[in-house]
Amino acid sequence: MEYNNLQIGPEIYGELLQACVSERALITGQQVHARILKNGDFFSRNVYIETKLLIFYAKCDDSDVANRLFRRLRKQNVFAWAALIGLNCRLGFTEEALSGYCKMLENGYLPDNFVIPNALKACGALQVINYGKGIHGYVIKMGFEDCVFVSSSLIDMYGKCGVLEHSRKVFDYIPERNVVTWNSIIASYVQNGMNKEAIEVFYNMRTEGIEPTRVTIASFLSASANLLAISEGKQGQAIAVLIGLDLDNILGSSLLNFYSKIGLINEADLVFSKMIEKDEVAWNLLITSYIQHGQIESALKACHLMSLANLRFDSVTLSSILSISAITSNMKLGKEGHCYCIRKNLESDIAVTSSIIDMYAKCERIDYARRVFDFTTKRDLTIWNKLLAAYAEMGMSGEALKLFYHMQLDSVPPNLISWHSIILGFLRNGQINEAKDMFSQMKSLGFQPNFITYTTMISGLAENGYGYESILLFKQMQEENIQPNGEIIMVLLSAARNIPSLKYERAIHGYITRHGFHMSDEILKCLFDMYARSGDIS
Fold first, then answer.
1. Residues 168, 174, 179: CA angle, nearest 5 degrees
2. Is the pLDDT of residue 192 over 90?
3. Separation of alpha carbons 538 and 528, rounded Å
4. Positive or negative, the Cα torsion across 222, 228, 230, 232?
5. CA-CA distance, 216 to 88, in Å (whole number)?
């Protein structure tokens, strides 16, 4: 048009920029921008063109240019605010997105049904329920509650904030629900551990004739995996096949996760082999599955094949490799993983650092583990607990206790895991009185012992010849409604064996019978030995 001397107005440039937005054609859009600047202020300072340019750069995720253009706008408008808030939300700048929503209102611009979902997404990510409720009030005031996308965003926001009753109320109020709405409520239930409810809603959705998407199936498979519901998970896979969903990364990864959690590794292998494309997430799921089920050689082979596929090892992959090193005490492999982390600047990742510390500790090089810890600048509670656990496992109670006090001086308050490590360290070192003192101190500070803490204390007392006290602690565990497993029963039988009175032995036998514990060969042998020592094998 320019070559033919035809007049080009702002609308033409606007359409060109819109086309670049649709194709996310950043370079072409920049060329259009350059032409606009060349043609002078009539075009470059036109409010319509300025807004179109801002939207273009925002949609192409160029935050610097978009923010610069926004600041230069002679007259702000709803479209400009919507583009900037959407950009911040998409890039994970949730505080900036929510701040933008508030400033938009302060400047007299009313957010529409395109802005509200982004503001609600930011509220969910930040878990600021009061802001979310405020936006919900605005939605009702402006009459946006009938918009499916706004309602779905409200369900998602309440779900992420853990207020499922509000999610359900919003869902039940929607007159015509589409698949996005159903997906939001199912995902909310799964995120909050309400897996049975998620499965029930999925079946209700099917009853109402709504065809699921791969997102629906993925949430349904997660709920099935969490419940170890084999039949339901396989139904989910069958439905996906029936409606013709391709085995892409989303669906394939969900199936991998399901089969891994229920322990069907051969089925997970089959799903992986049939996936159309395999990204880092799929490979990591497969490798993790192998490790969790003790197939270390398969995990190493998968790592090698992932490398041959020219996929980059990320923090999850490296954590898996370091975990293999820890399990097999293969420090050579662990050092190679550590070096890779340094080369790829992954050593600042908390999960990777924790895995490196654990690997060196399991390879009995606690000095290397401590060196990694000392060179870590950002230490969260996970990293402190990892080194505490390493000291405890090795019975280095003195070092563990020094670290325990050091973390508090660094303003990192201990949690139940931290206390457990200190108690374990004392028990491993035979310091029973110190372990009992720490256990009492922990309870006095409001930390309620869980199953693992009780198991550690009962086992430690029994192993160090404090059988009577271990049985008393077991009674205390029962008073707090914490159910034992077969391992604890074995420990108690062993403890009772060293107590002359037959009263405790019969009490434990009675407990086993009343609570329907499986009479394994080990338990039967312990019972027989216990009665034989007391001279009562009748």
1. 85
2. yes
3. 10
4. negative
5. 27
Amino acid at position 150, single letter: V
- Model confidence pLDDT, tens digit, residues 146-164: 899 999 999 999 999 999 9
CA 457 vs. chain centroid, Å, equals 30
Residue located via tokens 């950002």: 378
* Alpha-carbon separation of residue 161 from 40, 101, 147 (angstroms): 50, 19, 21
Alpha-carbon distance of 468 to 496, in angstroms, equals 7
Is 291 strand, coil or helix?
A: helix
Query: Could you tell me which of 303, 346, 356 has the C-alpha nearest to residue 325?
Result: 356
Tell me which DSSP letter residue 250 carries: H
pLDDT at 190 over 80: yes
What is the DSSP code (8-state) at residue 212? P
Rounded to whole angstroms, the Cα distance separating 196 from 222 reads 11
CA 374/CA 348 separation, integer angstroms: 13
213 DSSP assignment: -
Is 138 in a helix, a strand, or coil? helix
Query: Residue 308's Cα: distance from chain center in Å?
Result: 28
How many other C-beta atoms can be found within 10 angstroms of the C-beta atom of residue 200? 14
Q: Which two tokens stand for residue 70?
A: 């926004």
DSSP result, 456-500: HHHHHHHHTT-HHHHHHHHHHHHHTTPPP-HHHHHHHHHHHHTSS
Backbone phi, psi, residue 509, to 5°: -60, -45
Instruction: Check: CB of residue 388 under 8 Å from CB of residue 422.
Output: yes
Asked if residue 414 lies in contact with residue 448, where contact means CB atoms within 8 angstroms, the answer is no
Instruction: Pick the more confident residue, 149 or 475.
Output: 149
Q: Which two tokens stand for residue 29?
A: 């859009």
Higher confidence at residue 448 or residue 38? Answer: 448
Beta strand segments in 173-300, E: none
Say what percent of the chain tops pLDDT 90. Answer: 63
At residue 5, the 3 state secondary structure works out as coil
Q: Which of 348, 353, 350, 382 is nearest to 369 (CA)?
A: 353
Residue 178: the pLDDT is: 92
How many CA atoms does the CB half-sphere of 39 hold within 13 Å?
18
Residues 6+ apart with CB under 8 A from 305: none
Q: Is pLDDT of 243 > 80?
A: yes
Give me the torsion for CA of 120, 122, 128, 132, rounded to 10°: -10
Rounded CA-CA distance 409/122 in Å is: 34
Residues in the chain: 538
| Predicted TM-score (pTM) of this structure | 0.76
pLDDT of 183 higher than 90: yes
Average pLDDT, the chain: 88
Query: Tens of pLDDT along 483-492?
Result: 777 677 777 6
φ/ψ (deg, to 5) at 81 = -60, -45
Nearest to 375 by CA among 342, 408, 326: 342
